[in-house]
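New to this. Please check this record:
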Amino acid sequence: MDDFWNAVWSITPTILVGLLFWFIMWVIIRADRHERAALAKLEATERERLGISTPVAAPGDPRN
């Protein structure tokens, strides 16, 4: 039974670091998603205020 607990205590730090990494990446990606949505909403409001119907693509943008 000692081998089992040695294995558990050996793998626990790896699992915890992996979970911490996953959580940090999840927070970063979620924040980026919300920031992009807020910027899109702001840009749409500005386009509406200025009377521009579509977003202006930058030169070299593949959406041109």
Summary: Residues 45 and 51 are 10 Å apart (CA to CA).
